[in-house]
Structures are given as structure tokens and as C-alpha cells.
Hints:
Layout: H1 3-10, H2 18-60, H3 100-112, E1 121-127, E2 133-137, E3 142-143, H4 148-163, H5 169-180, H6 184-194, H7 196-207, E4 224-225, H8 227-235, H9 246-256, E5 277-287, E6 290-302, E7 305-316, H10 319-337
Antiparallel strand pairs: 1-2, 1-7, 3-4, 5-6, 6-7
Helix pairs in contact: 1-2, 3-10, 4-6, 4-7, 5-6, 6-7
Amino acid sequence: MTELGLLRTLFRVQEPDSVRRRVFYGIVAFLAALVLVDAAVFEVVRAALPEVLARRVVAATPQATPSAAPTSRAAPPIGVAATPTPARTPTPTAGTPSTPSAAAPAGQIAALSSGLPADSVSVAARNLNTGSTFTYGSSGGQITASVVKVDILETLLLQLQTSGGGLSDDQQTEATSMIEDSDDDAASDLWEDIGGGSAMAAANQQLGVPCTVPGSGADWGLTTTCAQGQVQILDQLEAGSSPLDPDSRAYILNLMENVTPDQAWGVPAVADAGTGFAVKNGWLNMNGDSDWAITSDGIVTYQGQTLLIAALTQNNDTMSDGVALVQQLAQVAAQSVAP
């Protein structure tokens, strides 16, 4: 039953008077007005609903908090490079030289060798491309062990250059065994050929090798030195100004570049992947099962630069400890002279 029918039932009379008729039609008009208002409100709500919902979605979305930093800069337009902000130049302390690059490597080496007695380490490096150098540790007294074999061969070839002679077949065989295989008997024979320690001392003076004291008698392996002296010996193989002629330098380098694989440790550990190297290592047990002297001289390519590195250690508990240490020292030295 419709609203109008209900009203008619409620107001059904035999002869409705004018009052009832006015009330009846007034109620009808009121209900009609409500219907029209309801329709209008519905249309308004329906039209406004999408906007209201959209505003609720936006309000619910987390907004990025703007940076409060005063130095924030807007991104440049596409195709326009951003201008880098120059770094502030630190103001040096008056009267104090700025040497940050030397402090860090020294601190690293001190930490690496902290468990060893004083003067157990000597490290040096020279960058042949830039001329940069680095030294750390004792300036003498380091046992050479077998790295002295390069010094023995340089002495022999320098003597032969002076005399105008050449290596005999036996000497060539012994030189190869001494450097590539680190053969001690071959070293003893060539040590005797050069005239022992006094002859090597004379050659080192000519080569400009410092801090090196040859072992007495037949004890070539107990020669003492410093890393700077060993770098100078390596430099004789690369420097055009060396007293050694090009053939002698090339001969020694070729032997050092072909050491047996089990002796390719030490300085070569820092070489760039896929690059060659020249190396001579030494190892000598000074006191039973402990107190190892572990040494390594090498020429490597590091970050595209040619480096001469000498890492000398002693008082190591084991050989493996010493090998690990010289490789770590070589890494620090290489980084200190790297571009």
C-alpha cells in the first residue's frame, strides 16, 4: 500500500469536510516535498562521493618528511649534470707537517707485528712510476736468509763485467738452481766464487746498497740487512743507471720470474691478477722449532704500477706465521705507495 493509499484509508469519511481535506492534501504535499529532498540529497552525495573517497586515500598515504639539512639541493634538469660540492680543505695546524698517509700504514704494521720483539720487522717499497717510497721498521740487523742470493748473483755478474768474462756452464746451472729453486749448495759454491763476504761488501758499495753486513766465513745466509737495502738491490734490476749492464739485469730478472711454484709466496701475493712478478724469498729456522726468519723481495705490478717491495721479519714462531706476516706487510707497503 502506498503512502497516499494509507492516507486515504486513515482519512476515509463519507463526506470529508473542508478541514479534513486541507489536512489531507497538506500531508500529501509534505510527503512529496520529502521525496524531492531525498532525491536531491542522494544526487549531491552520489556526485561528491568519489572526491571524498579520493581525499581519504590521499590523507592515508604517508608523506615523505622533507630534509631539514640546509645544504640539500634540488636535482638538476634531465641532461644537465649536477655541479659537485667541493670538499672543504682541512686547515693544517701551524708548524705541524701534514703526513696522514705515513701514519696509517705505520699503525697497521705496528698492529700486525705487535706480538713480536722490537726490531723484528723491516719493510720498504718504491713505486717506479711515481717515485713514491715507504719505509718502516729497523734500519739494519735483519737476517736475510735466502734473499741474499740475489745479492750474490749481482756481485758475480758485476765482477765478470769488470773482468770481461762470462758465466761458465757450471755457474749458469748453479745460478739457476740458486734463484729458481733456492738451492743452498749452489749458493755456497757461488759465494766461494765471488770471494765471500768482503767481495760482496765491495760490490754493494758500488751498487749503492746500504745497511748490509755480509755473513762471516761461509755463513752467507746470516748476512744482515734492512728493507731499504733490499729495495736498492731490486732497483739495480730495473734502473737504467745501474752498474749492471742490461744483459746482467735481464738474466737475473728472468730467473726471479721463474721460481718454482711452491716459492711464489710473499710479495707476489699483492700483484694484480694476471700479471707477472719477480721474487726471491728466504726462510731460516734460527732456534729449533721457533724463531723463524722469513723474508721476501719482489717486483710486482700493483694497481697498474711497478713496485719494488721488501718485507723482512724475524722471531716468528713458525714458518707459516712468518709467510702470512710478510704478505700482510707487503700489502700495507703496496697501498702506501699506490696512486
